[in-house]
Amino acid sequence: MDRPNRRVFTETLLALAKNDRRIFALASDSRGSATLNEFAATLPDQFVEVGIAEQNLVGIAAGLAKCGKIPFVCSPACFLSMRSIEQVKTDVAYSGANVRLIGISGGVSYGALGGTHHSLQDLAVMQAIPGMTVLLPADNRETALLTQELVDYPGPVYMRLGRETAPRVYEDDYRPAIGKGTELLSGFDLTIVAAGELVRSALDAGHLLRKEGISCRVVALNTLKPLDTEILLTAAKETGAILTVEEHSIYGGLGSRVAQFLGESCPVPLSVAGFPDEPLVTGSQEELFRHYRLDAAGLVERAKKLFRRKQAPRF
Length: 315
Description:
Radius of gyration: 19 Å
Largest sheet: 7 strands, mixed
Distance between the termini: 51 Å
Number of strands: 12
Mean pLDDT: 97
Low-confidence stretches: none
Shape: globular
Strand order of the largest sheet: 2-1-3-4-6-5-10
Strand content: 15-25%
Structural class: alpha/beta
Helix content: 25-40%
């Protein structure tokens, strides 16, 4: 049964921490939203609660890392990526500390709580920090396996997780690799490139396009930085058009990264699907996806428009 990725993360982390006393979980009055109550009760000596003090949260984590511990900082993405960014840049990244920053309820997961709780800039901020790895797992399996991988992964990491149930994308034999994308659907007319919990919508859109006679390739990226340029270059050369899909501002996220790379390596018609540069309307996550055409039906419309651009004569 599909569950929220944040819950899968904390269950996986607890199982790992029971056998590895180096692992610590840290929260900023966020043990509820991060589903860390069981962790705190089971392993109180490996849990740190700092209250609403995100700057202190990250500073303490950096200190623990320098003492040989493996701190997992669990805080809402909207606050972790904004309030503590100086400490992330200076205390964590500058010193190369092995701190895992887990942005809970990323994107528009908080829905109707509005702009104060949306995190549509976190990927832009985090990927601009030198040495920071940026991860966006798509489903429960990928979340669990990437969490396991992070225990001994070198350097600082930011991993964004959603709040709601994450629909299944991958089969039981799937093994993710940091920095490597996955081709979920083959095709030669255009490619949809998606990251995070919108991968399922992208895959559904790919199947709908096939029914309408458009051969759509779907590529999933679990890592925004480092970017899998090889899979992107192959897709651009073989399909000739790229649609990127992300739960983020259209500025500074997946679309910007792909555009920068392809602009230098293989320019093709490109469309960036994300949230516009304006205050968002209020609604649930599902309602916001539908309103901003980030659901499967909306992505089909965007892909058709891109396909027409590809077919149009170029001057």
